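Teaching assistant here, posting this on the class forum so everyone can see the example we discussed in section. The complex has two components, and the goal was to see what a joint structure prediction looks like when all of them are supplied at once.
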Amino acid sequence: MGIATLQGVEKRYGEVMAMNGIDLDVPEGSVYGLIGPNGAGKTTSMLVISSLLARDGGKVEVVGKDPQVEPQAVRRVLGYMPDVFGFYENLTTTEYLDFFAAATKVPAAKRPALIADLLGLVDLEGKADADVNTLSRGMKQRLSLARALVHDPQLLVLDEPASGLDPRARVHLRELIAELSRMGKTVIISSHILSELEGICSHLAVIDEGKVKASGDLNEIRRTLTANRRITLRTPDEEVDEVATILSGQPEVSEVDVERGRLRFVLTGEDEDSARILALVIGSGRRIYDWRLEVAGLEELFLSITGSESNDL
Amino acid sequence: MNPVLRREVMERFRSRRAPWFLFAWTIGVGMIGYVAYLVSQQVANQVLGRLIATQYMGRFLFQAMAVLMMTAVVLIVPGVTALSIVTERERQTLPLLQVTQLSPIQLVLGKLSSSIGYFLLLLVAVGPVVAIPLLFGGMSAGDIGAALAMMLATAITLGSVAIAVSSRARSSRGAVAGSYAIAFIIGFLSLAIFLGELFLARPSDQALIPARGREFYSSWLNPYVGMVDAIRQPLRVPTDYTLTPFAAFDAIVYARQGVSTPAISMGGGFGFFARGGIGFAEDVAIQQFPVQGQESELAVRVRRGPVWTRTLIIYAAITALALLRAAFVVRAPARRIFLTKRRRNV
């Protein structure tokens, strides 16, 4: 049983089924990505987990508590960061964090040190006395993350945290999430821009039209969905044809293709087969400059799961 | 200290608008106080003797200030409070508060106390002006306490109603309009309804004398009537000209008790506003019907009971319902996401 579980959860907005029997099991310590197009049900799922929205059916547990029955117990261990930065007028970043620390019952004596630590964590030490409204969007997102962390929650629910950020700010945010994961936090993170989640998620759920199309360990999903893996290699130009001939003779190899000095082929076997073929080519006296297993990206996975194309992704 | 109250106070008093409003408010009250002083001086000099005149001026100024402050409650409190919840929703900070350890009632009370606190500051700021009548006499400290208590009760009631409206509103404009609509019903429409009742209850077309002892339920809701009834300051000086700012409201209080004030019995049409006095009426009633055990005007009045206690009971009920309603609306988890006009894409 994970830190957060959803079983057959349903939520309807009028005629629209935002959650149509969603099942999720978020393991403790994971970075769990929710991917799907706009309107798929990601935000609704996060609101239900965060005790902000009542479900119409199904079962939800966060640290063993039902957010609908024991919302305060859930809120003690959960930090929520919505997809927009909610700000107040005329407050400094320190005062902003102090307010939310007070609202989450952090003792007044502990707050100054806590706020200094949090500002350090999100790299905003130099902005402690800055008016919140003068911060850049990236800084606001980091401050928002610090706000979600004021009561040291076990579980963080981050709804589209990188939306609208420039590339540098995105990299910064990703590093921050990785750091939180190293600190032992469980992170549920959503995005409709798949590249944002690339490289930070350990687990994944693909949500579309209110349903989970696939979920679980990211590597498992990759393996399941991409049994045929593609390998790219680089070799001296004069040896390309000979290497291609060796590869074509292997039963696990198909679709050998030469493209701008690079060889690409599809491997139907496992990692052991890849190693054996590489040893065979090198053993034949050919030189291999680069041998790379192409990992299926989230976009590729999403398309293979949903079987559709979307410009939104 | 409630964190919401603390933050609201910081946010409100750091805004550029706050000091300017406070400045304009103080100047405005000072000017109105000065005009009231000139009017009372004019009346006193022309009609009353020196001894009575000083007390009369003190009372006139006190009553003018009380009516002015009560009007300020009706006009300012809804405006200050109406934006409290809807603004949180519009700037999308409400979910951030909902996932904290704050209970919905703490959130709502934080908002209410911030607005009431702001109004109290406005009262304190004009304290010196409002205290001027004390120099003249003609009123007791109890009168001032009663007036302030009724103002506070009215402010809490209207503030609670505004928060309930704000919690349901989809836009700031809607919240302000809704809050003012209810404040006007309580503050002014109830008075207009009473006047209608009074007119319909008259025994003949010639006078505005109401049926003796008839109850006017609309008067229970009105903060001015409640305040005038709570103060009750007989002048105890016989005079046929005791125009004070309370005269019109006073007529209401006495009419429901079966006592016709000179304001009513001697006047016709709007003439009664110019003739009549609060304490004078009571004195007349006592002097005319002093015998115990008889169905006197005074006995009728006692049976009716004061308006202000009923006003307070009604206000307490309205306040409790409004705050519970607001807390219910802002609670989470909610059945649906409450979207403002600014944001409908969730």
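For the discussion questions: The first helix of chain A runs from residue 42 to 49. The longest strand of chain A covers residues 16-26. Think about how each of these relates to the inputs above.
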